[in-house]
Fold this protein.
Amino acid sequence: MRSRFAVLGLGHFGFNLSLALTKKGAEVLAVDNRESQVERLRDRVAHAVVADAKDKGALASLGLEDMDAVIVAIGEDFESSILATANLQEIGVKKISSRVVSPTHEKLLKLMNVEDLILPEAEAAEQFAHKLIRKGILEYLEISKDHSIVELHVPKIFVKKTLGDLNLRKNYGINLITIIKSVKKAGLFSLKKEPEENKVIGVLDGSYVFEPDDILVVFGSESSIKKILDLSK
């Protein structure tokens, strides 16, 4: 059975989230109070309807309580976001995710016991800051305070050497997850793109020979990743 989601608010974030969920096989109900925004998705998601999320009756008529999750993706109008979230709670929606647009908004959502908070701008800023500071990182995904997964170009000194010769775990303290041989647009995690847009090697053995155009996807501590990046300077 397909997962079912509703997205309330079809601005830039909600629009792209609706498409991404649909591409991954989910049944999406896209909702906005603007006809123009709904029309953009009319033929691209399972259902797209015009409704005011501030109107509890309108939301109650959509069957949202049966969804796997309802995402409140309303943008800068955080009053509408708060009211929409309250309406969802009142009609019995089990799983609510809300986009956060300001510190005040975040505090109010926490007071409402909304646990799944989405901070797209903050996360984007964090990733961009890492790419600026750590030159050579194509993409960055924080796993914990001290560990992350990054994409980076293969250091020149690795080229024509085997994975077994380099022994990355012992000598550099990193784990090689896989290698991307070609992508339509460099700098996008293979996990974030559709499978057909990447040529991923998969699990590698010690005989693999690194090539000049390889993009490495590695896991390690911040200090270990810095050590690898320093090799490319």
